[in-house]
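[stage:ingest] chain + small molecule (heme C)
[stage:ingest] validated
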Amino acid sequence: MMARWRTLGLLCVTLLTVESAFAEQPLESAYADKVVPFLKRHCISCHGAEKPKGDVRFDGPAPDLTDPKVSEKWRMARRMLAQGEMPPEGKPRPSADELLAAMNWIEDAAARAAVVTRGGVGRRDRRAGSGNRARSSQGIGRCVGQVIP
Ligand code: HEC
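[stage:predict] done
[stage:export] tokens:
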């Protein structure tokens, strides 16, 4: 029993470390690392420069979600990913890890954009700090949820 809890604890710590490593990576480099490869693999064939489907493109640099139009597009993308609507039927399904990394990035970027837009630049740093704490306690909740049957 003890050994089992120790293993779970270790797993928990590992998950949290992975999560905070991701949280602390600057948004733009996380975009390049996690999102661009995902988009290239699953989206750009239909949403690139040439005749983009639905007039939606995903081939640009890291998006600025403080722009309401941009934010709307990514919110829609996130919803479609969550519901499995994109990539469309008949295309290879992304793995769960890939999907979660892309969706987490969108959530992170949207949360930060909301802080910047509502908090103003002067208050941005303080608020961003508490946002990170909220995020890590959320991480613990998720972690506990995952390891306790
Ligand atoms: C095989 C082609 C194809 C691929 C691959 C594809 N899409 Fe699409 N996508 C479409 C078409 C066609 C539309 C427009 C019609 C529609 O809404 O179904 C569209 C529309 C969209 C829209 C706009 C929906 C709206 O209601 O305006 C978003 C957002 C989107 N795709 C996101 C993605 C994302 C993210 C990926 C990659 C995970 C992706 N798509 C991959 C074909 C594709």
